[in-house]
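Forwarding the complex inputs:
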Amino acid sequence: MDIEIIFRIAAIGILVAVLNTVLERAGKKELGQLATLVGVIIVLVWVIKLVKELFDTVRTMFKL
Amino acid sequence: MTTTVLQVVAFALVSAVLLVVVRQNRPELAVPLGLAAGALIFIFVAARLAEVIAVIGRVAEAGGTGISYLGVVLRVIGIAYVAEFGAQVCRDAGEGALAAKVELAGKLAVVLLAAPVVVAVLDLVLGMLG
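Prediction (whole assembly, two chains):
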């Protein structure tokens, strides 16, 4: 089981949170929001790939 | 088989801890994280599921039940599982209304799939009566 993708997603989450607070302290709130958006998009791309794999397995398993 | 269960439990515990940490800071990243964990667990267990389905198929063959009906049952289980999975993710994200719609779509698909079987049973009953 590829457990690393879970760690990658969690790492992105923590990274984005830290980046957000740093940028907010520096007075660049809009840049922090952009970082959040980029993080969400990156994670979404990974998760969509994973969900496609899930659907493929279900489809072959239950002969849908 | 026991190691599979242990692996799944360990994986779920690690994911749960990470989820709690991520949800505090970035709730919008917690939803994909939970989704990824759920999908990974199912993909991991899928190989065992195939064995179970093969056993059920063998039993049905021995019992003389039509294999076509077993296919319908399997398809219904698959649709129900996928619909439930999607609905639970939506509900976790706080979108209860969307989850209800997903469940409705799943139920519709199941009814549509089961309709030929129901019609066959009704035909049989009517034939016995008439």
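Residues 4-61 of chain A form one domain.
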